[in-house]
Queue: 3 jobs
Job 1
Amino acid sequence: MALRINFNYSAAVTQTALQTNNRLMNKSLLRLSTGLRILNAADDSAGLFIADQLAVVSAGLEQGNRNIQTGISALQIAENSAGQIYNKLKEIYVKAENAANDINDPNARAALQREINNLIDAIEKIGRDTEYNGIKLLDGTFTNKYIHYGARKDQVISVNIDSVLPKDLGAYIVKGQGAIYTSGAVSVGTFSANFTSATNWVVDSGDYVDVAGIRVLSYDGTRRFVDAKSLADAINTNKDLQALGIEAQAKNTNSASNSFTGFANFWSTTGSTATVSQVTLDFYIGNKDITGSSDFQVTIDSNITSLNQLVEAINTQASAAGVDIKAKAVDGKLVLETGGGETIAVDVAVSGTDLSQGATVNLSQILEGASDITVSTNTNNYFYIDVGEIDIAGVESYNVNQSGVSASNEGFNFDVSTATAKNLNAVSVLTNASAEEALLILKKAIQRVDIVRSEIGAVMNNLQTIYDAQKVAMDNTNEAENVIRNVDFSKEMSTFTTLQIRMQSGVAMLAQANTLPQLVLQLLR
């Protein structure tokens, strides 16, 4: 072994190892004191980059969930206020139904109207005053708003809340006012022959009705009377129109123009020998094939001397035929009413003696808008048709297009082609007719508010689902970052213990290495 005193290699190497151990032990000590595995970029440059990116995502998810919570808070305010509006509309609906009862006198209806006006004013205030942090929610201005929920660009949900102000709540209505056709005295013939020129009263080739661009009535190969009930049924069973909130209601009430005074006063003659022995009414109800037989027949003769007898005769025959039409006496007049708004068509035949001298039948005592006809022969007939009324109502604007089934005072007799908006401000209950219409307006207004509430609820549910999913994602992201960035204490403590032992042994060995040069002194003695 060579002995030198100018350079102690063993001490130098031991000191280097000691310094390395000291540096590693200090880093391990710092990791244990901070809990971080990566103290600076030099520790793990790739790991630092990944951990920092994960930290950004985690922070973004956390802020996104805070955004969701504030969005849900605002939507809860909007939905609760819309719920209050629904409650007000329900009150108005009940009052309108009350006013539709003709037991109410004008003073009672006026009082109900005042209450309704006050409730509408309350709806106006709720709609205009509902806000979140100064942002109006229910007046129609809260549209195209975005709630940013995610950690990345364009992770947003669009929110639109329609207006629930009285001016924007109501129904879009098209009325089929149902026209009456009177033929006058004509030669005996089938309905098919006598309605050849009356095309707007019959659904035949090329005829149709479209509602909101959806065909709901068309020629089925059989020429049938235009019928409000058939159209209403077609609209109400169409799922696409149901989805658009469009529905229809049909009715047909035919009130004789004049009071029925009995068979003896039902007719008059010009000549002294002319007599009328009976008047036969053939009834065709609904979308009847105009070439087919009648549904039932009623004969008015000397056996019928009163309105009650006539009512009984019609009801008996209609019941036997299974036809949904009912006769009743109202204020001395005959009133015919179909159950679902079906068309009422009548073929009138007059029988008698020496009718060539001229006989007049007062059909105005039987049918609404019918003329008092004069016949000169037993071969004369009179044709009559009354199309029921139909109200088509929706929550949004729509068009009604038709061909061959509606014209002014003919067929369905639609009042407009583009639905007319009638909002809450148009609600009037001062008459039975206006109160009935108010019920339809209010029904659609309630549906609109319910649609708004359901849309708000759907967004809230969507946001809550996203919140829950992002909370899980945030937890997993934090865990992923934790694995990279933070220290494993059990492993690091083991490392620190090892380094500590190595440090202690290194100090001891350095002391031993420093004594080696002293061996030279033994040689110099």
Note: The chain has ten helices and 25 strands.
Job 2
Amino acid sequence: MQLQKERGARQAAEERIRKVVADHKRLEIELVRYRDHFESLVANRTAELMATNEKLMVENRERRMAERERRAFEDQFREASLMLEAMLNAIPDIIGVQDSNHRIIRFNKAGYKFFNQVENEVIGKRCYELIDQGAPCENCVTRQILETNQPAQLEKYIDAKGVWMDIRAYPIRDMDGRVFRIVEHWRDITELKHSQASLVESEEKYRLLVENANEGIFIFQENQFKFSNRKAREIARRLGMPTLRKPLIDYIYKSDRGKDPGLFMRRLNGEDPKPHAISFRVVDQDNEILWVELNTVNITWKGRPGTLNLVRDITQSKDLERRFQEAQRMESLGTLAGGIAHDFNNLLMGIQGNVSLMYIDAESDPSLIEKLKNIENCVDSGSRLTKQLLGFARGGKYVVKPMDMNQILQSSADMFGRTRKAINIHGNYQEGLWTVMVDGSQIEQVLVNLFLNAWQAMNGSGDLYLSTSNVTLSETFTKPFEAAPGQYVKISVTDTGIGMTEETQRRIFEPFFTTQEPGRGTGLGLASVFGIVKNHNGIITVKSSPGMGSTFEVYLPASDQHPEVDPVPADSIELGSETILLVDDEDYIIDVARLMLEGLGYTLLIANNGQSAMELFKENKSRIDLVILDMVMPDMDGEAVFKQMRAIKPDVKVLFASGYYVIEETSSLLQEGGSDFLQKPFNMNQLSTKIRNILGKS
């Protein structure tokens, strides 16, 4: 039982063992299955972890690279910022940033310096407050940008600083394209403004200079006028270029075109540049000839070659040059004529003196008196001829007095009209005519010669127009005639004759030039007119053209003295008994004058030169009542003798005598105390009258 119990226990134990073993096997199988599943899970998780780890490693590498790039970008940005800051501060112009409400965000160093404020004093202020304004500028660039969304520009004078600023503004936009910041660039343009003002002023001056220049200025390019000033347009209008529109060469006087007419066009087009000016004549629309001077310079005009041309009307200059040459020639001939007249008058004096003496001895012989009269007529004719020569000669005047030209002109016209009744004389004499200082007889000779010239030009009949007027002449008018500007009396003589060519006008005042037939004229008439007018410091001009008559205009200097009336010469010879010192260097003049003076009753002292005259005067000054003194002598002339005599005896009475009268010298001597002047040749009547006028009636 026990055994069965043990057997049953053993079987139960074995059963439990089998069960345990079975459970163990089942558990082992289950464990293996779970192990395999776990290993599968671990393997999968491990794979996932490895994948995740790989991804993290990649991301970590990328993050490290991004960080390095960020730091590199930050370094570059910082470097760029520093560089930009340095560049902005190095710029001398003002650079500023502001918002849309005009509030300053920042400036560069130049901005702070300009406004003399530091950064924290400027930031937040409105831009217009910095220039002491209470409101934005009238043409505010910020307002322009906000209105147009485009850059803006303004030139403004900053009163507070006294400078001009060129202000340019540029918009800064956000991501949506809206303007939220504005950059302003201020540049000081004060010097530029001053330069521009100076340039404008300079340009205006040059424009006024060019436009108002006395020379015509024009630019010629490609056969066309590109520019012309007022004077050039004036010359063009005078030539009729705007209406006639002829080829340019047709305006040039034919004889001045030369063998190569194309030369002028090549010159204007710059193909034949010449460094010197050329002079030639042009013909205006009235067929009048003008002298012009052209100077051409090659230039570039609007990027293309052209010429700058200066054209000057030299018609007056050419005329003045011609007059000057004529005056020089006439002066040379006048000097010669004066010398001839002087010597000839001395010879006539010898003849006239002897005739006067022979009259005394021939009173009872009528036939001899008739012959003496014939000789005297010849002397008178010779004297008139020398008067013409003296009139032509420089200084050939006699006694100058203040006179009324209306009276002289009317008297001469009346006398001429009585002998030339076919001439109709028309007078137009200005009232209140100024006085002139003239030799009446010489001026009468001028008028008579002009009347005769007109009568010949009108073939004996026609109209003669005479006029006088007061005029004031400028230096421009008088300079070519070597006369002084000022007040003059103008005498005009106009005829209705045949007129004169330009060539004749150039020669009419030459001595011995005449348009008459041989034997009908001496050619001294107008030459003496020229000389007489010249010797009176006057001017004579002529205007004439063929078939249009001629006008002679005489200008005589005006005087503020009152006119004098010439005394009437005595008809009879007046005798005397005073002591006279006769001084002359010609022996035959001394001989005849001695006989004449002794015949008149005078006591004589005689000297044939200046030195001898002074010796006699010193010895006999107390008893010498009058000195008759020749003006032209060798070694010591009459002027020197007179001055030495006056130094010895201030009230000495001197009668000057000469065959050649130098007005400037003798007028001065008469003003210094000289008594009178006697022109050779003279007769006893004239000599006696002059002496008694000086010494007083007996």
Note: The CA atoms of residues 356 and 684 lie 6 Å apart.
Job 3
Amino acid sequence: MTTLEWIIGLLLGAVVLSALARKVKVPYPTFLAIAGVMLAFVPAVPSWTLDPELTLALFVAPVLLDAGYDTSLRDLRNNWLPVSTLVVIAVAVTTIAVAIVARRLVPDMPWSAAAALGAIVAPPDAAAAVAILRQVKLPYRLLKVLEGESLLNDASALLIYRTAVGAAAMTHLAWREIAPSVALSLAGSPIAGYVAAKIWLRLTPRVNDAPTAIILQFAGTFTIWIAAERLGLSAILTTVVYAVTLARTAPARTPARLRVPSYAVWETAVFMLNVLAFMLIGMQLRPIWIQLDDTVRLHYAEVAGCVLAVIIVVRILWVAVYGLIMRLLTAKGLLRQSLATGGPTLKGGIVVGWCGMRGIVTLASAFALPEGFPYRELILLTACSAVLGTLVLQGLTLRPLILMLRLQDDSPVALEVARARGVAFRAALEEIDGDPSEAADLLRQEYRELLMQADGSPDGGIAATELPADPLRRRAIRAARNAILGLRNSEEIGDDAFHQIEEELDRAELSAEG
């Protein structure tokens, strides 16, 4: 088979696996991981390789920007305590535990390589967990904690990873030598991301062609990532701040005819990157697995199994310890109630502890190890095992576990959406209130009926019937959009509610354009 035939076959196979995953209600990365490993045992599978320096930028940058764009700063700030402990302490403890176990099992492995392995398998990919959590009724705050963790834990893990890879290339590396670069990364990356977003918004305000706008979005994402790497900054933190800054400003400037295709392309691109990452790991593993003798294979399998057990157990233990500490501090009156809510309940802690599936960041960082890195083959095999093991073991059992715990959904998003709809319709009515034309009368009547429906049914939506081009309707929709932007900026609604109303207004705006 030619390369093109393989690509077509892999993409079609991924589409089938994704449909099957939706049917059985499991995260599609679970099936992709299984298929990727199976490729390693297909005799005719091609051997595709990527430049290690390209891997992180290609696979992580777009996925991270897509997640950062949808992040709610309000919810992230409200959940800073549980998120920060998962992002910093849980990742650090997991890295240390994995490094110690790896050194015990492979005494010749340098500490730098053991630390790199720990950093590679430390960050969970909560995107797989969120895919399940959105299918069931779950407390909103629990969902936000996991989303916040998935956005930021890669930064802490890759900071350790980059330091460990650098240490492996040097015979001696003292803390005083790496401290300035770490400080620069932590302090300079957010500033660089914010400045880059502001510059980008100034450079691209008049782009009105959808294909051009989308190409520029991807080019900008890769440019920001590569520039941050070249400057010694954290590409993760820079990209996250860049995405969040864009998300706060771009919706007011972007018309629906650009935003709708852009969202669709980004969703497709993230899916394709996941497909490529999981399939490439199988192609990378086959030559490694073949060249190992049976004794080494058994030893590597032992290491991979122990590392898998460590990353699962450490996360569960940390979540349990965190919950215990929070409850003790609350009982002794040492923690304000507003902060005490950051401590997970027993049921919530069980769910968070079990949401430890690894994913594309683990695969990409393993790929990115330079050729000749100590025990690179072992690290690749172990990373693949960590991804496959957690996605299968935890990914297939998370939904039954949640259903068994019978957690209650407090549904704040539905309430915020209902309130935002009312505000949007009233703003639209006020915009055309002084227009004496017959068209304005008809439009006012339509919006009054929609307002009554919105007040009586929170699950309703904004009508988007096929209409000829209607400047009056566009004015009303623009006023409604400004109203919900104001609600988000004042944090009366979160980004989940905002994006839901934004999507409804986009459909109405496209219809009003004819």
Note: Residues 412-512 form one domain.
